[in-house]
Each structure stands twice: as C-alpha cells, then as structure tokens.
Amino acid sequence: MIQVDSLHKHFGGFRAVDGASIRIETGSITGLIGPNGAGKSTLFNVIAGVLPPTSGRVTMDGEDITGLPPHELFHKGLLRTFQIAHEFSSMTVRENLMMVPASQSGETLWNAWFKRGRVAVEERALAQKADEVLDFLTIDHLSDEKAGNLSGGQKKLLELGRTMMVDAKIVFLDEVGAGVNRTLLNTIGDAIVRLNKERGYTFCLIEHDMDFIARLCDPVIVMAEGKVLAQGKADEIMQNEAVIEAYLGTGLKNKIKEGAQG
Fold first, then answer.
1. N or C end of the chain, less CB within 10 A?
2. Above 70 in pLDDT, residue 104?
3. What are the residue ranges spanned by the domains of the chain?
4. So what's the architecture of 2-87+167-257 in CATH?
5. Which residues contact 68 (CB under 8 A, 6 or more apart)?
6. Distance CA 84, CA 132 (A)
7. Burial of 193 (0-12, 13-18, 19+ CB in 10 A)
8. Rounded Cα distance, 190 and 70, in Å
C-alpha cells in the first residue's frame, strides 16, 4: 500500500530522516519503533503531507503522493493522528465525530438558510454514524460529554473514532499509548485489531510499549538516527543485538538473557 523510497528530511544540517525506505503492506498493522530523535514522527509527518521531503518518494497503491498536502491525502484515505490528541474541547464527543466528514451541506451559508431539510437529514445520518462509532469503541456513555473533559486514553479513542467517520484506508497512529492507563490501552488495542480484521484498516503505529507492539504488530520496523535499522517480527526484533544496543537498552538485554537461562 505505502512504499517509501530513500526518503530524506533535513532541517539545516540535521538529518531527521536520512534515506529511510519502508513498505507498509495492505491489511497489516506495522509497528515503528526507535529511540527518541530517531526520526519516526518526522517520517510520519512527511508521509502524511505535514512536512515536505528534502528528497525521496512516497507512493500509495502505486500512485506518487510525495508532498501532497494532508487534505488531499485525507480524501485518498490516508489519515494521521498525533501524540497529543487534537479534540474540539468545548464540543461534545458526538459533535467532534460529526465534524470529521468533509463537504457537508451545512458548511455553506446558502444551504444553511435555504436547504435546511437537506442539512437536517445529513446531520441525523452523521449523528447515527457517530453513535455507531462510539458503540464500537465502547465509549458510547461519553457521547454527550465535553471532549475537553475526557482522560488521555479516552481522547485517543476519540481520535481513533474520527478515522471511522470517513473511508480510511491507512491510519498512522503516533504514540497511541502515551499517557494512557493499561486498561484503556487494551481497549485501544482491541479496537485497532477489530478495525484491521473486520473493516480492513491498514495501520502503522509509533509506540514505545513493546508489549503493545508485540501484541498488535507484524512487521516491526526499527529506526535509529533517521535510518531504518531493522525489520521483522517483534520477537526477532527483541533478540536483535543492534536493536538492543541502539534502542531497547542493556536492561532488556539482561532480562532476555535471564529469561533464556531460566
């Protein structure tokens, strides 16, 4: 689905992404891991059109999408969430979801004044879809709550819900587990797996929680210093000496050795 070839993103003399090449297969849940400063979020931002690349190429289903702005990629089904959730805090959870679909009739003054019937029909359909999404995510009890009152994990679920309000093909999730308690993280993980299995979503996610990565992701791609260091199954990655030294640390290395000896 997504092919990234020799991608570079430089900020002055700093090479945030330095010749990275990755492939995200249709129907996969691909994990992207690496130490802070490895270039993961920058890579996401370039793929998703938030930042222009210095050089390199990104294709989606064979179509060159390099440098396309986010709104164009949105219409192609490529969505990206952020480490810090971007909700409309003064609106309800349901209203946040209803804001997502583009080209709504009520967005124009003419329709708002003279085609109120059409606008009302659309709004009822959107409200129904939003309620179905909230039920799927098991947060339907929060539908009338102000989004600003949600916990960090609930906001991450709301972000995931936004992707369900449109025909998403691939969703890039940036640190979905950051600041989320274990119970809600499991709920988010369950939703990702269900969307993947039942609705055919393709995911690529940045995450530091290796248990979460191991549960959901195949393959796992490791970045370090702007480059792709390794790729493989989670258990292979956790045994990879170069990955352990660059990212996972000697603590995990010793833990792995202890487990092998036990």
1. C
2. no
3. 2-87+167-257, 89-149
4. 3-Layer(aba) Sandwich (3.40)
5. 49, 76
6. 25
7. middle
8. 27
